[in-house]
Specification:
The protein has 266 residues and is mainly alpha-helical. Helices cover 74% and strands 6% of the residues.
């Protein structure tokens, strides 16, 4: 998954647009996604779909996949929001009758409340809009340029260095785990439920040892190249932003703001 994100972020059509502008644009829309009404949030999510799929030329299947994975956390929270259980009594019968009853056991009734349905709908619009803004930045801006933006915004150097090393080791972990898994499969491993559990446990333990070896090699490599307790990044270079994108972003934000004010004050 991380290789897919990294590949798309370097090959999209908005790659040459200023990363600072893209991050600022997404940040404004993210705040609007969190504070606006559901109708505005859905319009904003659709607008982000246009920017990501049509303008940046991100494949629709990849976009749906990357939107759907964090959406699974929303799906897992739905039972706690929508489903309620109540003991039947004279006071609760009238309340339960206005909701969607799933089943009844003895004196206990499991049902979906109308308030829970409305809350789940509001939450879906907000989550969908916020994830769309984050996905736009993630798929159109390489991680190296995001680090430059963070440095431009005065983020502490220590935090940036830790993030840079962790990002590097994500690829190392993925590559090492894939090679070890292929080696296990070639030797007849990963067969059967119990065998998969045992082989996965062995893979995790050995993966830790392999990662420590790669970490030591990286540390020795940095020292050999004159590492002085500071990883220097490439300086931030401002990229031009097409006037078409600037005008469309301004008009879109104004229209969304006008729609939000109209819904609130009508």
């Amino acid at each position: 998954m991380i290789k897919l994100i990294d590949t798309l972020s370097y090959k999209n059509r908005l790659r040459s647009v200023s990363p600072m502008w893209k991050c600022g644009f997404a940040a404004v829309l993210f705040i609007g996604s969190y504070l606006s009404q559901p109708v505005v949030q859905l319009c904003l999510a659709g607008w982000m779909l246009v920017w990501t799929v049509l303008y940046a030329r991100i494949p629709l299947q990849s976009y749906i996949l990357l939107i759907g994975i964090p959406g699974l956390f929303y799906v897992t929270s739905l039972p706690a929001i929508m489903v309620e259980i109540s003991m039947q009594s004279r006071d609760s019968i009238a309340v339960i009758s206005t909701n969607h009853v799933l089943f009844t056991i003895l004196n206990w009734t499991l049902y979906i409340s109308e308030a829970g349905l409305h809350q789940a709908g509001y939450l879906f619009a907000r989550v969908f809009a916020c994830i769309s803004c984050l996905t736009f930045v993630m798929l159109t801006t390489p991680m190296s340029e995001l680090f430059q933006v963070m440095k431009k915004l005065r983020m502490p150097a220590l935090v940036l260095e830790i993030m840079l090393i962790m990002y590097r080791f994500l690829f190392v972990l993925t590559e090492t785990a894939q090679h070890m898994y292929t080696a296990q499969k070639a030797r007849g491993g990963q067969s059967g439920f119990r065998g998969r559990l045992n082989d996965t446990a062995i893979l995790i333990v050995r993966l830790f040892g392999k990662t420590m070896q790669r970490y030591k090699a990286l540390s020795h490599g940095l020292i050999a190249r004159g590492f002085t307790d500071e990883i220097r990044m490439a300086p931030y270079t401002a990229h031009p932003v097409a006037s078409r994108y600037q005008w469309e972003s301004r008009i879109g934000v104004v229209l969304l703001l006008g729609l939000e004010l109209w819904i609130r004050w009508r």
